[in-house]
Amino acid sequence: MIRLSIPVRQALAKLTLPVLIAAAFVLMLLGKADTVLAERARMALADALAPLFGVLAEPLGAVRAAADGIGELFTLHEENARLRAENERLRQWQTVALALDAENASLKANLHWIPDPPASYVTARVVADAGGVYARAVLLSTGPGTRIAKGQVALDDRGLVGRVTELGARSARVLLITDMNSRIPVILESSRAHAIVAGTDGPRPRLMYWPEGQMPAEGERVVTSAEANAFPAGLPVGTVHVAGGNVVEIVPAARLNRLEIVRIFDYGLHGIAPPEGQPARLQAADRRH
Amino acid sequence: MDRLPGIRPRESLGRRLDMAARWAFPASTTALLLLATAAPLGLPGQAEAQAAVALAAVYFWSLFRPAAMPPAVVFLIGLLADLLGYAPPGVGVLSLLLAHGFALRWRRLLVRQGFLLVWLAFTGLAIGVAMLQWALTSGLTLRLLPPAPAVFQALVAIGLYPALATLLTRAHQSLAAPERA
After folding, report:
1. Domains contained in chain A, number
2. Least packed by Cβ within 10 Å: which of A13, A198, A287, B117?
3. Would an 8 Å CB–CB cutoff place A206 in contact with chain B?
4. A160-167 and A261-266: which strand pairing?
5. Mean per-residue pLDDT for A2-28?
């Protein structure tokens, strides 16, 4: 090691902090100028942690389930009564649905309806929250060799969860529909009006740009629209909740606060250009040939 | 090395390893705390708790054991926090470096004071850091973010500090003390 005199060493020690603060600003500029680099570093770390979190998720889930179970013991009676009533109602709906399904099948047979090709999907476990303070996202553990691409649609058993925004070798990040940067073209199911569901970082995204003079009704179902070619038509997003004033919120159909397993669907849609410049150009070239 | 007269144990390999482990204790436990708060615990406000833990640990060690929390280590912890917290890179680095500088600047005054004044100083720091992170994230994402998460982040940091400081004070006097090696 180089021997330095004490005053020089002291001066160097005093300089470290300002130099590193300057380096932090450089890092910010670098992260802004080259978003791919920041994303790669982040996904490399996520790749390393995803298996670890996947292993941890099992015992942690067991602990949470036990805690929930104790809480449920106290509301068992009311819960039972509620479920009985709901079951009664659903039984009526089931007969209606079966009749409609049969009618639909016969109509389609008469019309020589060409069915949509079934979409391929992979199922992945949610291993961690990947939102941070100012975003709403989850991290999936995907395992090597799974065919997931950016922009694919994530659904849980009840409805739309979000879209894949970042991809690593063993993990993927899904931006939820509640995130501030999420905008989803939707259709109000009964009025057939088009609108946009915009995330606010809160638990309920907002409905925006619905046609003038056509106030969405409370409890109306909201499904995705095929406009912009980013989503297939008809995926359940949620139900309308009028929050007072002119603010219309959406209660998401998916259980976004307790996601455990999601399905990533490949609908073969390329409506939204991927954020990296190069693949977009390549895909455009592919389509031309 | 040290030139003070006196009898002290031989510089054996085991003792040197012990010293190194004690020296590395603050930085490594801070990194581990960050990883633990990134784990899928399913707690509400976990993202805010992650930012709070990093800030509290860096503040505490910069104040009471600055030799074990040099600026370069603070930089690396900030980078880890940014990557784990999905913040724009550099935001956590800058705020933790500023917290480190703040602690060093007021060290002479604060170390001699009781817990309450140290906590009060941390309260000011946490509010400042939450505001700075909010402004920087807003600026870097070119979008005016809602201020509520920043307020919540500051409150979580202030609320978590006493519990964390109790644990860290114990470690400071036993595990992280190289003079006890």
Report:
1. 1
2. A287
3. no
4. unpaired
5. 84
Which residue of A126, A133, A137 is in closest CB contact with B149? Answer: A133
In a domain, B3, yes or no: no
CB contact under 8 A, A42 and B83: yes
Query: What pLDDT, on the 0 to 100 scale, is given for residue A289?
Result: 42
For residues A256 and B153, give the distance between their C-alpha atoms in angstroms, rounded to a whole number.
22
A195: in domain = yes
Q: Does A17 touch chain B (CB under 8 A)?
A: yes
Q: Determine whether the interchain pair B40/A128 forms a contact, defined as Cβ–Cβ distance below 8 Å.
A: yes
Residue B5 in any domain: the answer is no
Residue A212 domain flag: yes
Q: Are B97 and A31 a contacting pair at CB < 8 A?
A: no
Its pTM stands at: 0.81
Q: What is the CATH number of the domain that holds A194?
A: 2.40.10.350
Do A31 and B85 make contact, defined as CB atoms within 8 angstroms? no
At residue A98, what is the residue type? Answer: L
Residues in B touching A31 (Cβ below 8 Å): 88-90, 140
- Residue B1 belongs to a domain: no
Instruction: Please report, in tens digits, the pLDDT of each residue of chain B (181 residues total).
Output: 555 666 766 778 888 888 888 888 889 999 999 988 888 777 778 888 998 999 999 999 999 888 888 899 999 999 999 998 888 889 999 999 999 999 999 888 888 888 899 999 999 999 999 999 999 999 888 888 888 889 999 999 999 999 999 998 888 888 777 777 6
In this prediction the ipTM stands at 0.83
Q: How far apart are CA A154 and CA A222, in angstroms?
A: 17
Domain presence at residue A169 = no
Domain count, chain B: 1
* CA pair distance B19, B181, nearest whole angstrom: 6
Q: Which domain holds residue B72?
A: 13-180
Task: Provide the pLDDT confidence category of residue A1 given band limits of 50, 70 and 90.
Answer: low
Task: Assess if residue B2 is contained within a domain.
Answer: no
Q: Is residue A199 part of a domain?
A: yes
Q: Is A200 on the interface with B (CB under 8 A)?
A: yes
For chains A and B, CB pairs below 8 A equal: 108
Closest residue by Cα to residue B64 from B156, B170, B141, B146: B170
Count Cβ atoms within 10 A of the Cβ of residue B38 and give its class: 0-12 exposed, 13-18 middle, 19 or more buried.
Answer: buried
How close does chain A come to B125, measured CA to CA in Å? 17
